From TrEMBL:
<feature type="region of interest" description="Disordered">
    <location>
        <begin position="1"/>
        <end position="22"/>
    </location>
</feature>
<protein>
    <submittedName>
        <fullName>Uncharacterized protein</fullName>
    </submittedName>
</protein>
<feature type="compositionally biased region" description="Pro residues">
    <location>
        <begin position="1"/>
        <end position="10"/>
    </location>
</feature>
<feature type="compositionally biased region" description="Low complexity">
    <location>
        <begin position="11"/>
        <end position="20"/>
    </location>
</feature>
Amino acid sequence: MTFGFAPPPTTSLATATGGTSRHGRLLEPAEWTAAGIPLLRNPREVVSGLHSRHSPVPSTAVIAVLGPEEQLVASASFVQRSASADGWEYRNALLSRLRRVLPHDLRRRTPVRTAVLLYCREGDERWTEEDGAWMWGLRDACTLHGLRCGAYITLTRGGWQVLGEGRGGRRPSSDSRPQHLGDTVAEFSPLALHTGGGAVEVLRRTAAR
């Protein structure tokens, strides 16, 4: 299995006039790499855990927040039905889900929690303009919610890949049946979050209907 970045095919998100992207806001692979996104210590465990919890199918985005020890704090999934959306729309969708599952960290000088995005889509593992728009949306949503921007992971029929790192695997894939959480290498331990008004539900699966 090979990994890397490649221009999207002509039938993807380019217009017929000059190949200009319909995505108004996206990050190119070089920009994403230069941003210094923190590496996941064990991406396979993260991917397997999110796949087991959310059972993503193509067009499903799973936004997850990890604590300092890479434990899962909160996660939410939704189906992004608009194929022509740009990074601005993706940012708003991600921010909306983040606000539903945990309070922001904007009062902290330095972010202590990291948001990662798993996006299940058609196609192969190579970078596309749609990926670039999700990257832009993730980075901006993290800034507005006081989080560190973490990995962007694609899940396709060929398996999963952490874009920009060259790390990936064949299982799980978009065709895989979810494992029971007890069958994964290590199960996440959610943290209890509290605000002035009491406990916050930290694990909630949201789906756009």
